[in-house]
Amino acid sequence: MLKEHYELVILGGGPAGLSAGLYAARARLDHVLIEKGAPGGQVLTTDWVDNYPGFPEGISGFDLADKMTEHAKRFDVNIENGEVERIDLQDEKTKTLHFFDGTRLTCDTLIICTGARPNSLGIPGEEEMRGKGVSYCGTCDAPFYRNMDVAVIGGGDTAIEEANYLTRFASKVTIVHRRDELRATKILQEMAFANEKIEFLWNNRPTAIEGENEVQKLKVVANDGTDSSLDVDGVFIFIGITPNNSCLPLDVLQADQWGFIPTDNECRTAVPGVMAAGDIRSKTVRQVVNAAGEGAVSVLAAEAYLNHLRETE
Ligand code: NAP
Is this structure's pTM higher than 0.90? Predict the structure, then answer.
């Protein structure tokens, strides 16, 4: 049952939100963590996580999310279900959250942990093969493709950076791009062009991902209409990410041109008392480990803001 007012509201229950919850509960802040589904965020839909410290054998995304939730519950993190429709930050001292069911609550400090989602191609086989060869994170999954052939979709910074990274493990990386020119920064392009393990398939778009229980083939169509296919063990899709920002006042938070929220090093946004942590932040590295770190940093910033409020009351 939600109260009308809290010292701290944490919006979103992914790694950033759960970590923020843990720190808030241990700091004995009057808090609530609001999550619209099951806690865990994108980790819940990640097949396997091999780069989160403390799990030397790796851990399934589902189990990691479960462990983070259990950890939060051990310290009585107050997790409530609810979906926020809009947030009013016009009054600097009182932040107001409006829920879709008509509920309303206010808080002194707010930590935004609403995350982001990778854009998908929307082609046959993509959803079915997710975690079975279809991946949206090279840094996470590259080591599973040692001595294998993979395809990378996209021509932006992320695609080219991740393609370069993938060549540490894969024997061949084919970058499939829908134009004949990359969007990525020149220096990243130069690295890719100089990399003997990277090949380019220009002017082509994926049409289907096929395989028996795991990825075996990527079907593509060229801009002139010619169909062809690549025999690959993995398809890495990097066609941009979308921030989960529909309930946020983007103008007040001075969102960047892609809709992510800029902060300082302590995760403080342009609005005093409002922090952002995890993938919704404007940043270049989006990993579980830094999302969790930012959750902790945000609570320390929230505490400092609350102390300041009390001193000036
Ligand atoms: P992005 O720059 O938007 O690039 C997306 C790429 O995917 C583009 O090449 C685009 O093709 C392609 N694409 C989009 N929709 C597609 C579709 N349906 N089918 C096939 N291809 C499709 O996204 P991003 O690479 O994730 O980067 C996002 C932002 O983060 C950028 O500003 C980037 O500079 C920044 N970033 C910075 C760094 C860094 O500084 N180290 C690292 C990563 C990202 P077109 O080119 O034809 O549009």
Answer: no
What residue ranges line ligand 1, CB within 6 angstroms? 121, 153-159, 161, 178-179, 183, 205, 238-241, 284
Distance of CA 124 to the CA centre of its chain: 23
Residue 141 bears catalytic tag: yes
Q: Which residue has tokens 């060229």?
A: 222
User: How confident is the prediction for the chain on average, in pLDDT?
Assistant: 95
Q: Closest Cα to residue 49, out of 296, 218, 235, 291?
A: 291
Q: Are 161 and 225 within one domain?
A: yes
> Which of 120, 121, 183, 201 to probe ligand 1 with, by most ligand atoms within 8 A of CB?
183
Same domain for 245 and 108: yes
Mind listing the pLDDT tens digit for each residue in 37-60?
A: 989 888 887 777 888 999 999 998
Q: How many residues does the chain have?
A: 313
Name the strand (E) or helix (H) holding 293.
helix 288-312
Residues 197 and 134 in one domain: yes
Taking the centre of ligand 1 as the mean of its atom positions, its distance from the CA of residue 96, in whole angstroms, is 34
Q: Is 115 left (phi over 0), alpha (psi -120 to 50) or beta?
A: left
Same domain, 107 and 170: no
In a shared domain, residues 168 and 60: no
Residue 143 lies in domain: 120-237
Domain at 23, CATH number: 3.50.50.60
The reported pLDDT for the residue numbered 296 is 98
